[in-house]
Structures are given as C-alpha cells and as structure tokens.
Amino acid sequence: MTNIAVTTWSLEQTAPTDLLPAAAPEGDVRIVRSEVPSPEFSRFLYASVGGDIRWTDRLGWSYARWQEHLERPGVETWVALDRGTPAGYVELTPGDDGVVEIEYFGLIPAFRGRRIGGHLLSYGTARAWDLAERWPGLAATKRVWLHTCSKDGEHAMDNYQRRGFRLFDTKVEEEAVVATPGPWPGAFPA
User: Which of 24, 85, 93, 136 to pair with 127, CA 20 to 30 A apart?
Assistant: First the structure.
C-alpha cells in the first residue's frame, strides 16, 4: 500500500471579535440549523461534502454511533441551502471549558466557487461563539478551533485565515492512500 505525507493545520479564534465575516452570496442562499438529530441526513452531508477529498473516518460508523454523536448536548449541524437544496454544512462539537470545535465544514462539489463557503464559515463560527446561549449548562465559548489538511480543497486554508482563524499547530503524518469514496461507490474516479 502506498503512503502519502499529509499536513494537518490547526487554527483557532480566542475571542468573538476575531471573526471577520464574509459577505453573503447573491441569490437565495439560507443557513438553517438541522434541529432533529438525523443519522441519515448527517451521513448524507458528510459523504457528499467529503467524498471527493477522502473523508473516511466516519464512513464505518453505525447508525447508533451517528445517533449517539448527534444527540450529545451542544452538537449542532448548520446547513447552507441554495434555493432549498443542501449546498454544504458546518458541524459544531463542544468540548470542555468553553472550547468548541468546528468538526466538519465544507460544500458539496457542485456548490464550490460560488462564495457560499465564506458565508457558511462565518455563520457557523458565529454560532460556535454563541453556542451556550442555545444550550443551558454549557460553558460560554472561550475558544473556537478547527483543523484542515493538505487533502482539503485548495481554498480551505485561505478561507479560514480570511475569517480570522490563526494557526497554532502543524503536523505532518504518513497516511495510506485510499480510493476516493464519493457519496456512493464509484461516484468519483479512483
């Protein structure tokens, strides 16, 4: 099996004022919270957004594992809709002591390059900062962080930095090359 070097960058904001919002795109683009925990919908978003960039860590999750994750207090999925069609999403996962991770973020390939990503990231980051307002019992957010890697889209790092995220860690690890899973088998060439 062939390996490749994958660089992972971790970025953070440490105050709500760090957020530098992007302008909203033209047209009928809305962002809504998926309030009903739905393993089917969350897996659809995960596979559709990450299928061409080799997101594989959750593909083996059982229905019960998805449900358990989605029902954790404070886990939220915010979905960008372009004229009612899911275009991408951001998933927030609270940690300890007011730390919120933007665990997943991205757009379905057909919606990339249309200025939706910056707007979705801005909106999702703002929701990370006010997460405790919707979840009594969670500590107020003190830090929002995320990671991106060299397998992600070519504009990912620039988008994060333009939204005010600062780099705090870089790691390089060898990973096995895996076939591009796509949202369903055979969706993308290997």
Answer: 85
- Average pLDDT of 83-102? 97
Provide the whole-model pTM.
0.93
* Strands annotated E in the chain: 3-13, 29-33, 76-82, 85-94, 99-107, 143-149, 166-176
**Higher-confidence position of 99 and 185:** 99
Determine the Cα–Cα distance for residues 5 and 171; give it in Å rounded to an integer: 10
Q: What is the mean pLDDT of residues 133-158?
A: 93
Asked if 122 and 134 touch (Cβ cutoff 8 Å), the reply is no
Angle at 34 between CA 72 and CA 29, to 5 degrees: 145
At a CB cut-off of 8 Å and minimum separation 6, what does 158 contact? none
Sheet holding 85-94, edge to edge: 29-33, 76-82, 85-94, 99-107, 143-149, 3-13, 166-176
Please, what's the b/e burial string for 155-175 (b: 16 or more CB within 10 A of its CB; e: otherwise)?
A: ebbebbeebbbeeeeeeeeee
Residue 108, SS3? coil
